[in-house]
Design brief:
Layout (H helix, E strand, L loop, with lengths): L21 E6 L4 E11 L9 E11 L1 H22 L6 H20 L12
Antiparallel strand pairs: 1-2, 2-3
Length: about 120
C-alpha cells in the first residue's frame, strides 16, 4: 500500500515589526500576560492643540510553563550576548536621570508638598 502525500496550503501572517519602550508583565492563575508598549509623543509646533501621545501595544499571553521557558531562553541568550559583546550595563544617561529623580523625590519629601506629580511622556 502506498501512502499518498497530502497537500497542505499554509498561510503565515507576519506581524509588523514593533519596538517596545516599556513592558509590563501580569499574571492570573492560568496565564502570564506580557504587554509590550511603544509610547511616542507626536507634536506639531504649528498646532495650538495639546500634544498627541501615541501608545501602541502588543500583548502576548503564555501559560505558566511557557513563561518559565521564556525566562530560561532569554537568560541563555543574554548570557551568550554578554560573552560575545561584553556585559550589558545601564546607560549613563539613565543612571543620571535616576539620580536626578531620586534627588528631586528627596527634596519633595523634605518640602512635604501636596502637589500631585503626573508622569510625563514628553521628556
Amino acid at each position: 500500500m502506498t501512502e499518498q502525500l497530502k497537500k497542505i496550503n499554509l498561510g503565515i501572517q507576519d506581524g509588523n515589526e514593533f519596538f517596545a519602550h516599556e513592558l509590563s508583565v501580569n499574571f492570573n492563575p492560568t496565564q502570564f500576560i506580557f504587554d509590550f508598549r511603544c509610547v511616542t509623543p507626536r507634536s506639531d509646533p504649528r498646532s495650538k492643540d495639546a500634544p498627541f501621545i501615541s501608545i501602541k501595544h502588543n500583548v502576548v499571553l503564555a501559560e505558566p510553563y511557557h513563561a518559565k521557558r521564556i525566562l530560561e531562553v532569554l537568560g541563555n541568550v543574554v548570557k551568550q550576548y554578554e560573552e560575545q559583546f561584553g556585559k550589558i550595563e545601564k546607560p549613563k544617561a539613565l543612571k543620571a536621570l535616576e539620580k536626578k529623580a531620586k534627588k528631586t523625590a528627596k527634596e519633595n519629601n523634605n518640602k512635604k508638598s501636596t502637589k500631585e506629580t503626573i508622569p510625563s511622556y514628553l521628556g
